[in-house]
Hints:
46% of the residues lie in helices and 12% in strands. The chain is α/β, with parallel strands linked by helices. The protein has a four-stranded parallel beta sheet with strand order 2-1-3-4. The longest helix has 24 residues. The protein is globular and about 45 Å long. Bound molecules: 4-nitrophenyl phosphate (4NP).
Amino acid sequence: MKLTNKTEKIIRDAIRRAKDEKRPLSLLFVCLGNICRSPAADGIMHDMAAKAGMEDKLIIDSCGFYGGHAGDLPDSRMRQAGRQRGYDFTHRSRTIRPTDFENFDLIFGMDDRNLADLHEAAPTLEAEEKIIPMAELAQNHPDVDAVPDPYWSGADGFYHVLNILEDGCGRLLEMIQNS
Ligand code: 4NP
């Protein structure tokens, strides 16, 4: 998916605002169950931020819309796929809260359903402006228009998700570093 000028401006404005206000930039990754895609994005971003020495400049979290896995660690298949690449995904699943729309600068939805749910849940127009399709950041995956739900897929689906998320998180970190 192509990074649109609108999305790029939203991200750069949020980065600049956090810098001007001398506070960390806060990022929230959102999927359905918060046990596969969004905790992986959360873990990858934490790892990349730590390696870049930017841990104290970022607040990173994730959540989902479906509460059936609340309190759970990520799906064992996602943890296993992550371990293969050196990640340790330890986030505990939680559902989205109304306050998330106030507390986070940028809110990333993984697929069209997550994005539609976010737009519906956003309490204000200002909150809606924070919502970003994660797939837009995956610049090395131009044919990908969503981070697809791997829950019903085989192991390949989990690696595909990690590929897209590493691409997208890498681009996001680059934008933060270069702004
Ligand atoms: P996620 O995947 O949204 O990437 O965490 C899913 C996990 C669980 C379910 C659906 C999607 N579920 O229906 O239980």
